[in-house]
């Protein structure tokens, strides 16, 4: 088993991780970026990004590919499908165990593992995952061409994904717990014109189907009555949960929602452990913000290592 020592281990290659990588490399910190899944994080899953300065409208995946190329200019590449399974703090340094079973020693770690879509925890959601239940319209949407789907949650993610699905699906429902959509106003005219059937003040209580999703039970919150709607797929966008397992095991203090508490220098309560992007408490869950936060964290790590 190879063992190597670096200055900084960046965990996650979303906006925060890549921006941190660029800044760390420019300060000549010996850095590696580990990515459990695929490069680009949540931004790479966005169908269109329309609010990243310099790009009027760009596919999320394309934007993040450009970031990866920029990173390469500084001799750094995210190591995809090689996540960090465990981190131990030993004598002031960190020992990381990678999914590849390699062990790496680092002077500091920057955890930028972001968030994942919340699960509803309702009957059949888990069993039918990948069989009609999805959390990513960009990944799975094309399988539902000409079919009936429902999107759960009318926040920005839910609404933009419902609009995307509606372009190719025979019928799209949008189910929202609140009495009105919870998205930015800019999407409202498009939503109204779309032909999407919106069920507000409504709660998805059950997914039905043996081998695949067949229907949904949606409760009208005003009357308490449930109705069944036949669909082939359901896309769930009801908020985000922090991917805090590594920080939690290291003993980093968390806030009441499970986000990692950090100070203005992105330091956690554990010395040498920094957090950036959506995982940090106070996160705005936007690409531009996560990038700035990653850059700030990398500079703070540089100061920390210089003083060691
Ligand atoms: C569908 C969707 C559309 C969006 N659209 C927009 C938009 O248009 N504009 C905008 O500004 N924002 C948008 N956002 C929000 C934006 O994508 C996030 O704010 C941003 O991605 C946060 O970046 P991050 O680096 O903190 O985390 P993430 O992008 O979540 O990246 C975290 C990375 O860490 C990896 N990881 C997790 N655990 C481990 C581990 N143990 N080891 C190694 N790697 C690990 C993950 O696989 C992931 O790649 C969207 C989000 C979603 C879900």
Model description:
With 308 residues, this protein is α/β, with parallel strands linked by helices. The protein folds into 2 domains: 3-117 and 240-307, FAD/NAD(P)-binding domain; 133-236, FAD/NAD(P)-binding domain (3-Layer(bba) Sandwich), CATH 3.50.50. Helices cover 24% and strands 27% of the residues. The chain has helices at residues 15-26, 60-72, 137-140, 156-166, 188-193, 245-250, 287-307, and strands spanning 3-11, 31-34, 78-79, 84-90, 93-98, 103-111, 115-117, 133-134, 148-152, 171-175, 197-199, 202-208, 215-220, 226-230, 233-236, 240-242, 273-275. The strands form 4 sheets. Strands 1, 2, 3, 4, 5, 6 and 17 form a 7-stranded mixed beta sheet that branches. Strands 8-15-9-10-11 form a 5-stranded parallel beta sheet, with helices on one face. Strand 2 (31-34), helix 2 (60-72) and strand 3 (78-79) form a beta-alpha-beta unit. Helix 1 runs parallel beside helix 2 and helix 1 (15-26) runs parallel beside helix 7 (287-307). The mean pLDDT is 96.
